[in-house]
Description:
Blueprint: H1 2-7, H2 13-36, H3 38-42
Amino acid sequence: MALFVLVSPRDALVSVVIVVGLLVAGGLFFLFMLKIDREVLEAEPGDVGAFKH
Length: 53
């Protein structure tokens, strides 16, 4: 993250805010899924059993 901030130009503040916002939103979603529905995170993509409920 620090490297991203160092290599981005000062004029690109809006882009940096958008990227940081998306990273925070993704992290919050991951924590939400970890707390609420951990079973979803334990299934691998393409696993046939993941589609059976």
